[in-house]
Structures are given as C-alpha cells and as structure tokens.
Amino acid sequence: xxxxxxxxxxxxxxxxxxxxxxxxxxxxxxxxxxxxxxxxxxxxxxxxxxxxxxxxxxxxxxxxxxxxxxxxxxxxxxxxxxxxxxxxxxxxxxxxxxxxxxxxxxxxxxxxxxxxxxxxxxxxxxxxxxxxxxxxxxxxxxxxxxxxxxxxxxxxxxxxxxxxxxxxxxxxxxxxxxxxxxxxxxxxxxxxxxxxxxxxxxxxxxxxxxxxxxxxxxxxxxxxxxxxxxxxxxxxxxxxxxxxxxxxxxxxxxxxxxxxxxxxxxxx
Amino acid sequence: xxxxxxxxxxxxxxxxxxxxxxxxxxxxxxxxxxxxxxxxxxxxxxxxxxxxxxxxxxxxxxxxxxxxxxxxxxxxxxxxxxxxxxxxxxxxxxxxxxxxxxxxxxxxxxxxxxxxxxxxxxxxxxxxxxxxxxxxxxxxxxxxxxxxxxxxxxxxxxxxxxxxxxxxxxxxxxxxxxxxxxxxxxxxxxxxxxxxxxxxxxxxxxxxxxxxxxxxxxxxxxxxxxxxxxxxxxxxxxxxxxxxxxxxxxxxxxxxxxxxxxxxxxxxxxxxxxxxxxxxxxxxxxxxxxxxxxxxxxxxxxxxxxxxxxxxxxxxxxxxxxxxxxxxxxxxxxxxxxxxxxxxxxxxxxxxxxxxxxxxxxxxxxxxxxxxxxxxxxxxxxxxxxxxxxxxxxxxxxxxxxxxxxxxxxxxxxxxxxxxxxxxxxxxxxxxxxxxxxxxxxxxxxxxxxxxxxxxxxxxxxxxxxxxxxxxxxxxxxxxxxxxxxxxxxxxxxxxxxxxxxxxxxxxxxxxxxxxxxxxxxxxxxxxxxxxxxxxxxxxxxxxxxxxxxxxxxxxxxxxxxxxxxxxxxxxxxxxxxxxxxxxxxxxxxxxxxxxxxxxxxxxxxxxxxxxxxxxxxxxxxxxxxxxxxxxx
Lengths: 268, 633
Hints:
The complex is a heterodimer. Chain A has helices at about 55-65, 85-95, 115-125, 130-145, 160-170, 190-205, 220-225, 240-245, 250-260; strands at about 5-15, 30-40, 45-50, 70-75, 80, 95-100, 180, 210-215, 225-230, 235-240. Chain A is of the alpha/beta class. Chain A has a domain at about 5-15 and about 30-110 and about 180-260: Rossmann fold. In chain A, helix 4 packs across helix 5. The termini of chain A are far apart. The radius of gyration of chain B is 34 Å and the shape is elongated. Chain B has helices at about 1-5, 10-15, 20-40, 75-115, 115-130, 135-145, 150-175, 180-185, 190-225, 240-245, 255-280, 360-370, 395-400, 410-415, 420-430, 440-445, 465-480, 495-515, 525-530, 550-555, 560-565, and strands at about 295, 320-330, 335-345, 350-355, 375-385, 385-390, 405-410, 485-490, 515-520, 535-540, 540-545, 615, 620-625. Residues about 1-10 and about 300-310 of chain B have low confidence and may be disordered. Chain B has an eight-stranded mixed β-sheet with strand order 7-8-9-4-10-11-13-12, sandwiched between helices. In chain B, strands 1, 2, 3, 5 and 6 form a five-stranded mixed β-sheet that branches. Chain B is α/β, with parallel strands linked by helices. At the A-B interface, helix 2, strand 6, helix 3, helix 5 and helix 6 of A face helix 8, helix 9, helix 18, helix 19 and helix 20 of B.
C-alpha cells in the first residue's frame, strides 16, 4: 500500500463558539486549540510530534485516535474518509489505532485487577476464545517484559515503569497498525526511560508498527522517529524528515527549541 | 447496600481488612447493639407495644414484666423502643434507597448524556435545593397527609437533589479519566463501559453517601414524627416517642432520653461504618500507621569526624552535612530512606543533587531545612557556618529559614497563594523576619527579570505564565538575601525554552551575589548547564561526589555511568543507550553490601559483602564503589 495509513486533513478543534440563547443569534467566543493540521502517517512510519505544553499535541493525538471529534477537517484511514468507512472498515480502524497515555496509573482502572482489564481489551478487539485470549496475553506480556505474576495486582501496586509496560501490552493486544504514544516516558526516570524506549523500538521492528510519538523531549523524539512535526499554538509550524527539521530548522521557534535543549556538557 | 459491596471486586479483600479498621468495627458494634434486638423484636417475649394500661403508668425500670418500665399510658417502654427503632430504621433505609436510586440515575444520566438533559436535570435540582429542605418535606407531607409512609416519601424526595448532584460530580470526574478513553479504544460500547469501568468506581462514593445519609434520614424521620407528621398513634417510631416523652422530661426523663439515646447510637454507628466502608472498598487503602512527630536525634558520630575530603580546603564551608540519615515510617517500624549522607557546600558554590525518584534526594533537601513531615525522623548533623541546626528551637529555625537558607519549590502554582496578589506576597516575604529585608520589592522584581511585566504586583498567580510564576517564587526566596538557595526540581514543570531561562537566572543570581545553590534534579543534562559539582544519590546513599566536568568526562561509579549512558542526547540518535535492568530498591529493602549490586554490570562477589564507604578518589572526588571505573585514557 502506497498511501498513508492515517491522514489528517485540515484538522481543527475549537471549544465553545456555540450559538448563545441570549442574546439570540450571537456566538460565544471560541477557543481554537488545534487549527489547520495536515499530517500523514504511513504504515511503519514513526512520526514525532514536539511542542511546548498547551500547544495542542494531546488534543491532536486524541483526535487521531478517534477519542475526540474534530470540529474541522477529516481523518482518512487507508485512504478513505472516516465517515465513509463501512462497519467492517470502521472496526479495522478501531482495532488499528491504539493509544498509550502519559500517566499509566490513571490509564488503568484503579479498582480492577490488571488481568481483568487486559482480558476485557482482548474481548473488545478480538474474537478469540478464552484459551486464545490467554495465549495472546501471555505472548504480549512476555514481549513487553511484564512478569505474569504482576497481572493479578491492581495498578497502584506497580511501579511507574511496570505500569507503563502493562499499558503498552494493552495497546498491542489487538495487533494495531498505529500506536499513539502520548509522552509515554516523561513520567519515568532516565534508567526506566531507556528501558521503555528500547522496548518501543523493538516492538516496532517486530510488528511493523507506525508510531505517532508525542514528547516535549527532542532527544527522545530524535531517537525514535524518522519524521518530526513541530507544533505551536495549535498549528504544525514545521514538519519533515528528522535530519531536515533538526539539522536545518526553517522556523524560528524550532531553532529556539533546539537551542534550549540542555546538553550533556559543562557550561562555562 | 449489600449488593454494592459484593459487586465491587475489592469486596472480599475489603471485608477481610475490616478487622484492621477500628472505626468501622466500632460502627458495626454500635449498629449491632441497636439493630439486632430491633430485628429480633417479633421473636422476643415482649408485650404488645400499643397495649395501654392506665393503671400501670410510669412504672420504674426493672419492675415486674417491664424491664425498662412503662410510659405515660402504661405501655412497655422496651417493647416500644425496639418496635420504634424498627420503624425508624426501615423508613430511613427505604427513603435512602429511593433517593439514592432516583438521584443516582438522574446524576449519572446528566453526567453521561450531557448537554440538554444535564441542563434540565441540574436546573431542576437547583430549584429543589433552593428550598430549605425541611420546608420541602413539610410541604410534601402537608399535601399527602401525615403518616409514616408519606413522611418517608417526603424525605426521599427532599434528598433526591443531594444524590443527583453528588453522583453527577463523581461521574463527570470518572468520565474524563484516561481509563475510560482506554476502554473506548478497546471497542467497548457505552453500556459495557458504564457497567465495568464507571459503576465500580462510582459504587464506593454512592455507598458512602448512602451510609452518611442513612443516619441523617433516621434523624429526619424522627424530626417529622416529633412534629407529629410521621408515625401516628398508637404506632410509634423513635421520633414520635421523643415527642411524647418531651412533656415528661423533668419528671420522667427516661421516657424521652431512651429514644434519644437510641437515635444517637444508631446515627453514630451508621456514620462510623460508612467511613470505614469507603476505606475498605478502596484497594489503595492500607491501615494507618501511628505517625511519630518529626524527630531529630543527634548523630552517633556528630563531632567525631569531618567529611573525608576537602580537609585542607582554604574556604570554610557554608553548609556541612555529616552522617545525615532520614527514617520514614513503614508498616513494621522506621525504614532508613537516607543514610550516611556526608558533604559540604562552600559559599557561592553551585552543587547538584542528582538521582532517580525515590532515591531520597528530596528528603535530604528537606532535612537540611529541618522541614521533614510528621512521621519522618532525621539523624546526623547539619551545620550552617559551623553552627548546628540540630536541637535548635522552632523559633530559631524559622528565623534561619528564608533569611540564611531559602527554598524554591517545584511547582510555583501550588507554592504561591492563589488568593493574594503578587505584590502582597512579595511584601509579606520581605516582612517575614520582623526586620528590613535585604532588597526592596522593586529590586527583587528586577533581579528575577520581571520588571517588563505590566502591572505585575497587582496580578494574581494564575494571571502569570509558568515561567513568570517560578520567577516570583525565586524572588520570594531571595527577599532576605539568603546565603544558600535550595531548589527542588525547580524547572521540571516548565517547558524547555522557559526551563533554560530559569536556569540562566539561577546561575546569574548565584554568580553575582556569591550565593550557594543546591539544585535537586533527576536530570543530569539540566545540571550540566548550571552546577559546578554533582552529588549522585542512589537508594538513599551518595554514591559519587565529583566536579561536573570530571563526572561527565569519566564517571567513577557504575551507576553514574549508567545514568549518563541512559540519557538520550540531541544530535546523537544512534548513541546506544545503556539499559539498566531492574528498578531501584524500595526504602528499607533488606540488602547486604552495595545497594547497586543487583543492577550493576560490574558486580563481583565481594560487592555483596559489606557496604562500601564513600572514599576519596583523587581530584576532589569521592565514590562509593569497590571497583570504580578507571580513566579510559
């Protein structure tokens, strides 16, 4: 397949701006958090999305995952506009895009055991029977380095690194083609961050996954992604191949962002 | 109620933990004291509670056939109390169930379906809540006529808004949780999400509301009956008994006091049990441990030895820390979270305290200020310009903090008071020590580079950006010109571009004014832009102390090397990241030998023997390792 797996065309999201009931006919002021975003994610491609907090990265990611309806623009899955998909294609999109949240502790229901959460995910995304689900869970847990003894626990009984691994297991259970990673290592210490980054690179190779990787950390994005998009105030101000964006940044903001990254060298 | 308990996945474990919750046990006991006899009333050999015997009125307690005596119509008091309690409890429980069911459904629907329904339901609730609630109940009873059933209905209706509102709030909160989004991504429909994700998280809130309301409703039923609108003679509930007994309060207090006492027991018991259930249904709850107040005990070796290096240092140290230890309370007594921390800071020196979360760096920083929370104790000695801070009175310490040592917190939004303008907070900081501050407000604003912000002093913290807020927090810390600034992850919450500005500001403030800085951070790359010397902490110990450039060029401790190797660097995407396996040990983990041994790539058998000491490694470096990495050259 040559076209992009997921294409975002003219995506915008505004809050407010509805018609007011009084005075009649007037519109409330709208807040645009994402505007005019065009972004293609090809199969197997890793796209990094960087920008400061409040720049609209997470909103855009949630739109791409279908968790939030955009107020403008269209999503295309395998070349088809989302609203034109047949129910079967829609289910494929549903299965095909998964999400890893920044804070794994809030992304796992605190009152359910991890095994139950993961089994539910399998039931929702696959037609496997009980044994099939168990086998699939065992396989993915092994690939993600999750000790199966942990699955009988609750999320709060896990460390941050373990919980994020479980969240990655959950995202991969349905054999997705695109995984959206929303600051998946920002809450982790550097030694655990290195573990998770290695895991993500390995899983991508093994399953041919595409990533939309959101981070404020340019060095992390540079490691994992071939394409980088820089977001500011809801717009993508620069996107391109990793070497171009980081090597010859066109936009002044990208240059400032690059200059601000702390270097591992003594100053002065 | 019982359905909600068994419906929760944590119920079995929760009920097992009941024994460890004294409040819930006490509540259960009180409730059983009233409930069991009331439930057993039909089986007990009690006289008919409505049987009057004018000849035997106001019999004293323990008279023949009447254990608690009789009332003004000669009816058996014990029998009336038990049957009355049955009526009160039944009415209260039924009213609670109805209110919870109707209110809960309304609230859930409003939160989940949103928009128009939310508006309509919540405005209706607002209207109902605008009436004093007893008035509402009175109006309903007035319309339906007095009687226990109508009173119950009135109380239920009057409480529906309360449930609707609380459940809407709780459901809205859950609705925005990431795990709901995750369930949607797993392809589940709304009914499945409501049943599996929302209700288990909502049930404890509802249960708690129901138990607290149950007590309240028993009271309200009693209130209506007391006013003569509830139970009608000759039947009685506790409230109407109280009402009848009121006339004889001075002559025969027993008749009114006993039902009153019963109501008290019932309500207190229900509330205690409710609080307990909320805890027990939460899998995150663990029994509270007795918290000792923050303590300080002098070090065994307080004055016996100086830190090993810097002995021939020309400048006297500003801050000397010797054998500092911090114990946090664990389930089986205190756990050493920090131990044997030795270092000192010279005037004007910028030193970083680096380590991963949980390694004890924040505890160490707080211990320097003697600001540890209750339940955490510290050992060892901290000296500021040769004067020990241990054993100083709270008043003297307060005077030192802010004046000689100041603290810059991680999250300025929570460190600044949201209700006061920036100007007022700066003024307060300048006045804090009852003497003239080192700088004027204007000078402080200039020092932190905020003089260009229009109307800064009139603004509230929320009207500033994150970087501006952190600058204000720094200005507050500088007000009295302290000799030492302790900054705990002071730039972690900020964006990279802002982060850099704050680092530059801190650096300039220390350089120009000869101020020492202890910068606590998890990020070695940040530290590289600011500090001259680095203390690396791991599992509560300082494992390496070295000048920054030497540390970056050739780390001596394998942990430092791993930290450096695991940090991604911009412009080096192909740098192979050193991946440490495993996770740091928990505080108080039973480890012999080196605390890093189980993750160390260079571990030898001898490493698991005695814990290595922090020893001199030449060039002003110290390292806690038996096999430090050698110079690659």
